[in-house]
TrEMBL record, chains A, D:
Residue ranges annotated for the DhaL domain, each copy included: 12-212
SMART domains linked: Dak2
Keyword Methyltransferase: no
One GO term describing the cellular component: cytosol
UniProt record, GO biological process: glycerol catabolic process
Protein name: Dihydroxyacetone kinase subunit L
Tree of life domain: Bacteria
UniProt GO molecular function: glycerone kinase activity
Gene this protein is translated from: dhaL
PROSITE patterns per the UniProt record, alphabetical: DHAL (PS51480)
Keywords per UniProt: Kinase, Transferase
UniProtKB/TrEMBL annotation, chains B, C:
Organism expressing this protein natively: Agromyces tardus
Iron in keyword set: no
Assembly behavior: Homodimer. The dihydroxyacetone kinase complex is composed of a homodimer of DhaM, a homodimer of DhaK and the subunit DhaL.
Protein name, UniProt field: phosphoenolpyruvate--glycerone phosphotransferase
Gene transcribed to yield this protein: dhaK
Catalyzed reaction equations: dihydroxyacetone + phosphoenolpyruvate = dihydroxyacetone phosphate + pyruvate
Length: 219, 331, 331, 219
């Protein structure tokens, strides 16, 4: 067990994050699918659960390597198992993070923040969604900003991750009133308002899982 | 939920076994969920690949065969397939003349086929894509992910497939595919919701006296929810919405009236009778017609109408021999 | 009741308009509700007529055309057609070589075709009839109106149609039709009831967790009501019931897995996968297979399995060209 | 208006009978179809209503002719419009009655009883059902016997018809416990018991319509 002063994410931390992400997704799959029933095609929970299960298997059953290798393997697993819009987008998030971190074996707040930013930029580039389009970007982008700000303010890692998670959650909630302009929900027009976006919800779960798994491991 | 399945998790794999058993001509790659033509891939010919979420059968696997697709990638129910599936299909069917991807305009399909095309390019395979976005129910396409791809996909697959079979090059096959895509328009109506196996209950509630006009093939909502009404009025709405979107006058039309999976053929013929009468009233000549289940939405009751403003070349390619599970003539 | 219709009273007439519009090759006699081959009746050839209640589409009108039926008589929904319809069809298609009636064994169909045969005989037309009674779900056939006629009808129409197309005489066409009829066995399963338009509600109640094993194509009850179960177990029950009734060993089999109207193709393929595996386990070789909606029961969810113990001649006639709305190959 | 002593059925009486039959069928169509839902295919009321409507049109819109012509026209109309098992059977009933009465223009009790017997014999010959099979025969056969007995006992026509109707009704009710051995209901096996047979019910309506229309016209 490490102390609170720990300010780096190790490869094991990344693995713990994604195992926890899988736990949360398993638990929330029904809820995510319900959200997707309301404004999509009722598969987001099933899609994500299929993906995180595959990620877990890959991470826990094969030797891990450096941070870049781990993140790439996560991205590949997501791309090849989730399907749908979210599969390529979450896959891109991790593949771009992998490129950003390269062969590092530990990531400090700033390096991780940069990687996260690169990942989200990849999602934007692939999906062409802008903030306010009622997509996962609405949770991811504020989360990136919060994490970068924390990093440049020298905030400790644990706290930085908590503020990234809080920003993601706030971004997620802010999708409720929005009218979707990307993804299936956009076909609903005005009827897409007053609903949480499923992808923003899973994105908030992703960031929260990191904050929580890190907190647990450094408790 | 009442379905002829073993478990929601194995629907796709189990159904693929049936496809292979019923159609000895096609071969199934279970690991990649790719249905492809067996032996008859002709060296040097452009190959056609399509794919998408499952639950729209016979689209796409039912259209694999002579004169149509070379391979179909099956995603989970209503979920686009993944780039690795598409890449596997691509390397399996590429005969050196390049590959055309026929992509229905849904974010998931578009993004995954895009990634696949990047991967294929990295392996030195030339890929072009045609996007089908024909659903006129989506009006504000600037403010959405764009129009959805529906029934015109079947027509693109048939006509581009015939063009590839003739030995045209990738640019030419892409050109005619694009032309078909641009000249096709569709609109659907749902009487009931589909039930996704993994969800176990209808994706949306539709009261006993309401229907969803302009529904998508995954149960995405359409233009409006209206009261249940006679088939003639429903047909009028479908026809006039399509005709308002594209000028069909003076050209032969290929019409496709597809069931959505839970509607019996007698109702589809009844609807087609209404559609044909309306088109005739408006002086539009249907040159070819298909009525039946071609692009479905699991067990949804309802139908979709597709009209293609055709030209002589499209008609000639339409009439060319085709030998697939769901479409066959001339052979 | 949610249906794509104008009014329950006009369903049949309206649907026939759609059939005629979609299939320029056939001609529709609206007064007599007879769908027949248009111009291509060959002088001197035996003619085939079938018919029955509507609601089973594509049976029978979808099987009118080269190599199959010459005419189909459409009754009201689930109600056999009348002798005058059949007589009109008979005089329309008789080419001097006699007419074969293909009759599903339901009291109404049998009695009405009997009256029609009497009327035709009075007009000097030679008629023979073949009765299809293939539903193994009816066990005590001595104590009932006999086994019901279901999926084997499709196979009789195809194979006898090919025999007639070859120019065989009425006795010979009747002989092969009878042979097919005697060697075909079927059994169905319903997940839901059909809803007859004129009735407006489901014909029977089936709780959410029960299915009807051995159902008839009008929703007549079958052997038993059992709990909803995996497709593999349902397939096992269908296959073993059929195999218990007739020895299928050592002969090639033609298999037909038909949807009942409200079941999507993905489920039919899934069921066929189970059936094929079970037959393989038992050493039975499926030589030809059809999966799709061929004999339906309005919007009923479920399927029926038909197995024909075939011989070389049947297979050859099966493979002969056919050009109808619902079955087409070789042309 | 004729007096109770009237002991012959005229052509107009026959027409009045079938018009009244149509009235009753229209009223009972839902009930008949419901009975047919329970043990058949839910069309008996619709079938009969289509047929009696056609009969009514033929009888009221074309010149009538003799009794045989009227009954034949009824039979033809039923055969060509009802469909199903009942169409050919009810059609046969009237076609055989027509043959039996020939060109008569009035039928006394005995002649009508003989015609009715010939008609029902025709139904039995065509449908090959025996009493107890839970079909229309279970109403028709006792009705024939009652009418013949009344005729040979010299019972007045009105009373004879009432006893024929009563016998048909009793025969109809007696179908309840029976297990069907003919028609679609036979597929139900034991499950066909405890239900009224739809065809026996419409047959009882047919005979009752005659008794009632005759009673009304001679009141
Ligand atoms: N263009 C896009 N950019 C970013 N996110 C998107 C885009 N399109 C859809 N999404 C996200 O994907 C989520 C839906 O994912 P999922 O249901 O798994 O895929 P699909 O829509 O293909 O069924 C949406 O809630 C949204 O957050
Ligand atoms: N073989 C038969 N002989 C006499 N009556 C029969 C026979 N078969 C059926 N019926 C009668 O026909 C009735 C059903 O008529 P209907 O529902 O109109 O025809 P279908 O059974 O063809 O749908 C049954 O209730 C029964 O009384
Ligand atoms: Mg979704
Ligand atoms: Mg999806
Ligand atoms: Mg009937
Ligand atoms: Mg009936």
């Amino acid at each position: 067990m490490r102390t609170l002063e720990d300010s780096r994410l190790t490869v094991d931390d990344l693995i713990a994050w994604l195992v926890r992400f899988d736990d949360e997704i398993v638990e929330q799959a029904g809820f995510l699918t319900e959200l997707d029933s309301a404004i999509g095609d009722a598969d987001h929970g099933t899609n994500m659960a299929r993906g995180t299960a595959a990620v877990r298997v890959r991470l826990t059953e094969t030797p891990s390597g450096d941070a870049g290798a781990v993140l790439k393997s996560v991205g590949m697993a997501l791309v090849s198992t989730v399907g749908g819009a979210s599969g390529s987008l979450y896959g891109t998030l991790f593949l771009e993070m992998a490129k950003s971190v390269g062969t590092a074996s530990e990531l400090d707040t700033a390096v991780f923040a940069d990687a996260f930013r690169a990942g989200v930029a990849g999602v934007v580039a692939r999906g062409r969604a802008e903030p306010g389009d009622k997509t996962m970007i609405d949770a991811l982008q504020p989360s990136v900003e919060a994490l970068s700000a924390a990093a440049s303010d020298g905030v400790p890692l644990a706290e930085s991750l908590q503020s990234a998670a809080a920003a993601a959650a706030a971004g997620r909630d802010a999708t409720i009133p929005l009218v979707a302009r990307k993804g299936r929900a956009s076909y609903l027009g005005d009827r897409s308002a007053d609903h949480l976006d499923p992808g923003a919800t899973s994105a908030a779960i992703l960031v929260q899982a990191l904050a929580d798994s890190h907190a647990e491991r450094t408790r | 939920m009442k379905k002829l399945i073993n478990s929601p998790a194995t629907v796709l794999a189990d159904a693929l076994r049936g496809v292979e058993a019923a159609h000895p001509d096609v071969s199934v790659d279970y690991a990649n969920r790719v249905v492809s033509r067996g032996a008859d891939v002709k060296q040097g010919r452009v190959a056609l690949i399509s794919g998408g979420g499952s639950g729209h059968e016979p689209l796409h696997s039912g259209f694999v065969g002579l004169g149509m697709l070379d391979a179909a990638c099956a995603g989970e129910v209503f979920t686009s397939p993944t780039p690795d599936q598409m890449l596997a299909a691509t390397t399996a069917v590429d005969a050196g003349a390049g590959v055309l991807y026929i992509v229905k305009n849904y974010t998931g399909d578009v993004l995954n086929f895009e990634m696949a095309a990047e991967l294929a390019a990295a392996e030195g395979i030339e890929v072009k894509s045609v996007l089908v976005a024909d659903d006129v129910a989506v009006e504000d396409s600037t403010w959405t992910a764009g129009r959805r791809g529906t029934g015109t996909t079947v027509l693109v697959e048939k006509i581009a497939g015939a063009a590839a079979e003739e030995g045209r090059d990738l640019a030419a096959v892409h050109e005619i595919a694009t032309r078909v895509s641009e000249n096709g328009r569709s609109m659907g109506v749902a009487l009931t919701s589909a039930t996704v196996p993994a969800v176990g209950k209808p994706s949306f509630d539709l009261p006993d006296d309401e229907i969803e006009m302009g529904v998508g093939i995954h149960g995405e909502p359409g233009r409006k929810r209206v009261s249940l009404r006679p088939a003639s009025e429903i047909a009028e709405e479908l026809v006039s919405s399509i005709l308002a979107d594209l000028d069909f006058s003076g050209a032969p039309v290929i019409a496709l009236l597809s069931g959505l999976g839970g509607t019996p053929l007698i109702e589809l013929y009844l609807m087609y009778g209404e559609v044909a009468a309306l088109l005739e009233q408006r002086g539009i000549t249907v040159a070819r017609a298909l009525v039946g289940d071609y692009i479905t939405s699991l067990d949804m009751a309802g139908c979709s109408l597709t009209l293609l403003r055709a030209d002589e070349e499209m008609l000639r390619l339409w009439d060319a021999p085709v030998n697939t599970a769901a479409l066959r003539w001339g052979v």
